[in-house]
Amino acid sequence: MIEVLTAPPFATIQDAGWRTGRAWGLPVSGAMDRASYARANALADNPRGAAAIEWALGAGTLRFTEAAVVGVRGWADVRVDAAGQSTPGTGDAGFAPEHALRVPTGGVLTITPDPRWRFIYVAVQGGIDVPLLMRSRSTYLPGGFGGFEGRRLRTGDRLALGNSGGSGTAVRGDGTTEAPGASPSAPARTPAPALADHLEVRVTRGPQWERFDAAARAAFFAGPYTVTPASDRMGYRLAGPVVLPREGSTLPSEAACPGAIQIPDGGQPIVLMPDGPTVGGYPKLAVVVRADLDRLAQCVPGAAVRFLPPAG
Amino acid sequence: MTGAAPPASPPAIVPLGEEGWTVVLGDRVDPEVHCRVAGLAERLAAAALPGVVELVPAYAAVTVFFDAEQVSAEAVRRAIARIAAAPNNEAAAPAPSRLVSIPVRYDGPDLADVASRTGLPADEVICRHAGREYEVYLLGFAPGFAYLGDLDPALVLPRRSSPRTRVPAGSVAIAGAQTAVYPLATPGGWHLIGSTPLVMFDPSRDPAALLRAGDRVRFVPER
Predict the structure, then answer these.
(1) Fewer CB within 10 A of the end CB, N or C, for chain B?
(2) Which residues pair with B34 in a beta bridge?
């Protein structure tokens, strides 16, 4: 069992999401940064698809009533206190890109994310045991279902651990060292690397690519766009050069997908994210390449993004 | 069911990301276009293409989602093109669609407003809403939210100028040429004319959504 001693500002249980359901309006949902989520599970020696905590916007503290192997992926300062004391991170000097550690019975884990990293993933060996709904343990907040009671984690919540997978081998027993699957040496505690002045994001042509003329596409790819605060698990609203389709481009609603770049009436792009609508009537100029959607998901408000034109 | 001539040229097949193809059959909301959408979706489903995960029929397009780890995008595109180009013989054997009856208590907070804006007595609004059969064009906006059409032309109104921040689940609503039942409590800008006790979406049910694209729906007034 894990007790949430101090809930981070925004944390939900997520896995790889719903494989089917789009035909009746169920978003894919699941982890915003699939690669980091998968890595956290690997660090915790979990099979693919185990449910983990998607953790955002600040520090929090978990107490373990049983010993556990924990994988944390995402720049953060992670401290374990075997005596059950909360040990806040010391800030910038303590960040590392990932952690694999064993928390003893009664141990307290304090996680302080680097504020420039939007989502970190906390996987526990065996997976977080929440009910399986439609073959996923993801939380879909707009519908209030899935995950842990269909909502964000709160202080005082108690999370059960599952028994999915885990070889249970070769965990070093000195408290803060790595689990199977981790890199062989303890992570160096170093400042997070300086971020590039903008993130380059690859795209493929969207279904309505032809509805945008050369000038509109040129403006779009020149960018840059800024991730605005009106960005969440449903979509990231961007601010930058206005891009508009040709006149008379009405579109009866049709399927969309995570990564689709919708151009609404004002010409400011919206990148759909995993909880985004499954259909939409705005033209989709382009679609973010899957691997780059993970990196875009990590952008905090104010981050600059430039889209790279598709080849050919 | 159709009687319409098949399209003169093969439909456009455009990519939707790395794991989707959208087959475009038209550019407007129209029962005839949607009939072709339903026919193509049915033929694609019957083909059970390897690696295809899900089909999403919409007003004028069908999207085919596939698993790129199992099948190449190009193989899926070729298979879709072959099926889309095959002679459309659905007129010979129209697929039987389900008819779903939805009981409605016509007591919505906007019923009086709809009556005054359409110039019809409230009873007449109810008669016209319950007096026809609708088709499920597509599902979206929220899980289980089915767009039903077409509404009696006398009931067509633009959306509310200020959307509600929370519409209760089960609300029966109209907007434009469409009607729907809100499956979950969500924000919404449609006119609420009634409510149903039916659960339109239940994640613990299989299937979770009561309606699927292509179903026919009738609203039955409850007293």
Answers:
(1) C
(2) none
Contact list in B for residue A310 (CB cut-off 8 A) is none
| Alpha-helical segments (H) within A79-226 | 214-222
CB A8 within 8 A of CB A55: yes
Q: In this structure, which amino acid lies at residue A78?
A: V
> Number of A:B CB contacts under 8 A?
131
Peptide bond into B207 cis (omega under 30): yes
- Residues A193/A300, Cβ–Cβ less than 8 Å: no
Q: Does A278 touch chain B (CB under 8 A)?
A: yes
What pTM value is reported for the model? 0.91
Mapping DSSP onto H, E and C, the string for A126-154 reads: EEECCCCECCECCEEHHHCEECCCCCCCC
For B129, the enclosing helix (H) or strand (E) is helix B122-130
Whole-number mean pLDDT of chain A? 89
Q: Where are the beta strands (DSSP E) in chain B?
A: 12-15, 20-24, 52-57, 61-66, 99-104, 134-139, 146-149, 164-167, 171-175, 178-181, 186-188, 191-195, 216-221
pLDDT tens digits, B99-158: 999 999 999 999 999 999 999 999 999 999 999 999 999 999 899 999 999 999 999 999
Largest pairwise CA distance in chain B: 58
Residue A174 to chain B, least CA–CA distance (Å)? 40
